[in-house]
Amino acid sequence: MKNYSLFFDDDRFDIDIVQRDKKSKLYELYFDTDSLFILIPFPTNNNDLLKVIYPKKKYEALLYTIKLSILRQFLFLSFIAVLISLLFSFYVLSPLRHSLQLLEVFIKDIIHDLNTPLTSILINLKMMDAKNEEVESITSSAKTISMLHYNLNAYLKEMALEKEKFHLKEVINEQVAFLLRCITILTGR
Question: How many domains does the chain have?
Answer without folding.
Answer: 1
